[in-house]
Amino acid sequence: MKIVVDSLNWISQLGPMVMMPIIILILGLIFRVKINVLVKSALTIGVGFAGVNIVINWFVSQVGPAVQLMVKHWGIQTSIMDVGWPARAAATWAFPLAAVMVFIVLGINILLLVIKKTNTVMVDFWSYNHYIFTAALVYYATDQNVVIALIAGAIDAIISFKLADWTTPLVENYFELEGVNFPTANSVGWAPVAWGLNKLWSVIPGIKSIDARPEKIQKRFGFVGEPLFMGFIIGLIIGILAGENIGQILIIGMSTAATMVLTPKMMQILMEGLLPFANSIKELLNKRFPSSNFTMGVDAALTVANSSAIATGIIMVPITLVLAAILPGNKLLPISDIAYQAMWLSAWPVAFSKGNIFRGVLSTTIITAAVLLIATNLADIHTQLALSGGFKLPSGMTSVSTEDAGTHVIGFIITKISEFLAHLF
To answer: What sign does the CA torsion over 249, 255, 258, 263 have?
Structure first.
């Protein structure tokens, strides 16, 4: 077991640029994908992830200081430190039952495929960490009850696979990713919420008539409605709210515009590698199981290529800080992952609204409020997990959490139910 965990940790530390090609190569060899397709797909996927990371990390480096200035400028104070998703993921893989959960989830996925209760083939082994995280939360919430923890992680995986099946048509039609879906629990768990909120906006007078899709904005306002210009304006607003000087405001504006334009182009490169590989796997599985229609489960990070998701995510950066300051019950200051999480959380709201940025912002604001409260509620358990994984608390800090932890809504619900049952019996 330790060898499995150590291997997964080693691979994950290499970053997605190297990690994903290794995973693709291993899977391709197992499924006997043609070597020329396999090698080209693996290398292209690595280049695509490198491009996306370069753009997003560069955006965070340009906008991050402005976000911190916004916090200082507007006097936002909270008591829980956001240590970022990498720290959460590292602690998750260090969880004693991590390797066991990997085999449980893999077995569940195979079983569900065999009995035809899912079409999702979860090929993104790195994202198994989300189900392991649920198991870890339940483990510490139930005074280290191993059985309940493993069952909880398994339930999280099953629910995520079923939600991925449900959202596959949306992924294929809106995000234009044929044969792909997103079983990552920190994302797909919010799909029903986004669906319900979009239904609500469709019946509210005034809101239901607002159509803020990029193509509609561009048609009405011309160049002003293009992602390039929208990104520039949004960046300027962030710089102004941060109280930056004129030069820095212009830099943030151009950085945001560049992100809006370059991210989709980098994602196109990634998809040039992923889709031939996914299609090859799908064809091989469909030959073996002719009555099935398999779909490759991958990381929901691919949704950041969508212009509406990017625009909504960037708009959500200042909104998230305002929420952190005024939301009753919130104690988390979401600085570490604010740009990443804003984009990921916006995916389902914009997808269900067919790219309507206005509805996307409304829904994502509500979802983000819930995420902050969940992250705050999980702080004590999250701190136990972090300390067990070797994290050292900064001086004067008694608890930590992450905005990423708050995105695990399925895991949170399962944790609370498990905690209640453990105390009941």
So the answer is: negative
